[in-house]
Amino acid sequence: MDKVDSIVIVGGGTAGWLTAGVIAARHQGRRPHGFSVTLVESPNVPIIGVGEGTWPTLRSTLRKIGVSETDFFRECDAAFKQGARFNRWTTGEADEGYYHPLMLPQGFARLNLVPHWLENGDESFCDAVTPQGRICDQGLAPKTIATPEYEGLANYAYHLDAGKFSKFLTKHCVEKLGVRHVLADVSEVVQAPNGDVACVKTADGQAIDGDLFIDCTGFKALLIEEAMKVPFRDCNDVLFCDTALAVQVPYADPSDPVASHTISTAQSAGWIWDIGLPTRRGVGHVFSSSHVDADHAERELRDYIGPAARDLTVRRIPIRSGHRETFWKGNVVAVGLAAGFLEPLEASAIVLIELSAKMIAEQLPPNRDVMDVIARRFNDTTAYRWGRIIDFLKLHYTLTKRTDTDFWRDNTRAETIPDRLQGLMELWKYQTPWLHDEFDRAEEVFPAASYQYVLYGMGYRTDVPPGDVAAERELAQRVRRENDALTARLLAGLPGHRDLLSKISQHAMMPV
Ligand code: FAD
Q: Where does L-tryptophan bind (predicted)?
């Protein structure tokens, strides 16, 4: 039986290096017995260089691969991310918006709070069930300098500099995890008679053999598309955005506040992301070129940024929404942009990279014979996850009450809404997405709480009466009191976001 000992990753962006780190860390004990992870990266093709919003999962991923969180903050210009605020998505009014925070609603495991919250009407759902929106409003960090690395007083993820992150991971993977790094252009993919990839050849004449090849070549999809001919499944009929304009915005003053949440502001035919790092903001406009021309979209972006936009060069990135029909074929598996891309509305790409890398590392086939079984399982789970992300992103568009442009009107047309999502929206008229339903299965990407934050943040009404049982009402009131007390405690005790980032640049956090 052919053993699977030699893993070759092609591509050195966030996908390539995270996957290399996760596999190498998990299989470190096998290295003396000939197990190897090689990453081949072109010195000529730059990484995509965007992708700066993440999920809390990145904390456990970085921790598992042995990264110091303090080093990560310092070397990747990282900041804390406590969720996203969606402005102008519901009615388009300038002062309208809601949070999708990263903390679960208080008491979530004990009680379905939605009926009790709905009883009270006008209050913001987020503020009724979690302190995190108010923490963000006040520009506070989710922890103090005394909180150990990777732990938080409020849940958090990161905003990071994508270019610096890849370099940071390169160093860590090579020096600490023994990943072999080859800097060369892959110019040929050599296939065996059974269709498997036997080796990749580089422009400088190297032939790199492997048992399993991981395609992390970004939009190029060198192995999965060009060699293995796996088709791409478009979803532009559901998610219309097909172009991004990206720009890096310096702070007017180095002490300007750094937002600890992603700000997503809806526009006439798309939306603008705004991500705060300690040294600059990353801002971009994702839009549908069938609904608005690029000049208009750029004007909206510059208007959003204001006078600081005057001298900035805007980078244009065409995007293709969709994913591979299968992700693992033969001995090739695609991760990252090579596997697919969806507009970054909920920053769901890096988390999918983490989930894919984890699954590959955990299920790494011991030999070629079982690889097809594992590939089938990987494909089923991964296709399911892409489908659920498409549904969740579309939910933001489906709930809009905006009718001011064709873009918003088209987005609520039934034929653009996936059947499964339509069904769920029917169901949610009478019951709420909650803990003990399908959204909390292992292969789910977004938990039930995320659906609640978006649905009720956008004013959806679920016609479910609160439980009659007095004990339940009492519990609901207690949970509310707990949330109020926790909110007061955190607002009084958490430092300003920028202050904590400055402190981390000078004092190491306590290692876990
Ligand atoms: P890339 O970064 O493109 O890397 C490809 C690698 O392949 C490079 O190292 C290149 O040198 C190498 N390569 C290519 N050809 C060859 C060859 N012939 N030989 C050898 N090597 C080769 N994700 C999030 O999670 N959050 C976000 O907020 C977010 N925002 C985004 C905004 C935009 C506008 C876009 C387009 C994407 C965004 N993403 C986001 C997605 C995120 O950027 C990517 O998922 C992530 O950066 C991974 O990219 P990658 O490593 O797959 O590809």
A: 346
